[in-house]
Amino acid sequence: MRAGSTRYRRLSFAAVSSTNTLALEAARSGDPGDLWITGERQLEGRGRMGRKWVSEAGNLYASWLGIDVAPPAELAKLPFVVSLAIRNAVQRFVEPPASAQMKWPNDILIDGKKLVGILLESSRLPSGRQALILGCGINIAHKPSDAPYGVTSLQDEGYRSGPEPVFEVLAEEWHRQLLRFDGGAGFAHIRSDWLEHAVGLSRPCTVRLPDRTLEGIFETLDADGRLILRFADGTRRPISAGDVFFS
Ligand code: BTN
């Protein structure tokens, strides 16, 4: 374990089970939060929906632990703060004219190909406080070979260095966006930046919900971060969770 930068607390490891799991353990042991945990590789990296996240050395694996980051009613907006911060960070390492975009709710894509995996987890601690863990895996030197969707890496996009400079910019940008978010009061600014770099705005899309599939136009993001889907008859439906596909 090495001591971190003076700007934020950081624990960095050569190999970890999962940086998200370690962050959760730190929260349960009473860590005050605002802590970054990074691993050069993960032995049990976790993805969304219980999937495994293959984590060889050469990519970035980082988790941030926050305690009582926002009131419970504002927590659903955090995925947008997270994706905007990560999008802005990776854009600094991508050769123009390539542009990093966000796909609702919080995927980061370049030319339709996934660059980053984000796993947000929260847990109510025995103290009654709320721990939030923001975990992200950024493809730098490697990308999965068996993904059922397009994938890319920063190296494919022209970047020629390692994970450390990317981590430094990411940590800075995350803290900047979290300050702007201001516990939810600044979400209007986040929303407007998010929309500027969103994939598929005003385009037809298919939304897959657990019990049905809907077709419509991705009209906008509402003030609570819900996707507003406009149907052919002009009616609208706010979507809080689901998978979105653009043709
Ligand atoms: C996804 O399924 O797209 C989310 C993947 C999230 C992977 C990151 S890597 C750092 C952190 N630690 C984990 O075990 N998972 C997240």
From TrEMBL:
<dbReference type="InterPro" id="IPR045864">
    <property type="entry name" value="aa-tRNA-synth_II/BPL/LPL"/>
</dbReference>
<dbReference type="GO" id="GO:0005737">
    <property type="term" value="C:cytoplasm"/>
</dbReference>
<keyword id="KW-0436">Ligase</keyword>
<keyword id="KW-0547">Nucleotide-binding</keyword>
<protein>
    <recommendedName>
        <fullName>biotin--[biotin carboxyl-carrier protein] ligase</fullName>
        <ecNumber>6.3.4.15</ecNumber>
    </recommendedName>
</protein>
<feature type="domain" description="BPL/LPL catalytic">
    <location>
        <begin position="9"/>
        <end position="182"/>
    </location>
</feature>
<dbReference type="InterPro" id="IPR004143">
    <property type="entry name" value="BPL_LPL_catalytic"/>
</dbReference>
<keyword id="KW-0092">Biotin</keyword>
<dbReference type="GO" id="GO:0005524">
    <property type="term" value="F:ATP binding"/>
</dbReference>
<dbReference type="Pfam" id="PF02237">
    <property type="entry name" value="BPL_C"/>
</dbReference>
<dbReference type="Pfam" id="PF03099">
    <property type="entry name" value="BPL_LplA_LipB"/>
</dbReference>
<keyword id="KW-0067">ATP-binding</keyword>
<dbReference type="InterPro" id="IPR003142">
    <property type="entry name" value="BPL_C"/>
</dbReference>
<dbReference type="InterPro" id="IPR004408">
    <property type="entry name" value="Biotin_CoA_COase_ligase"/>
</dbReference>
<dbReference type="GO" id="GO:0004077">
    <property type="term" value="F:biotin--[biotin carboxyl-carrier protein] ligase activity"/>
</dbReference>
<dbReference type="InterPro" id="IPR008988">
    <property type="entry name" value="Transcriptional_repressor_C"/>
</dbReference>
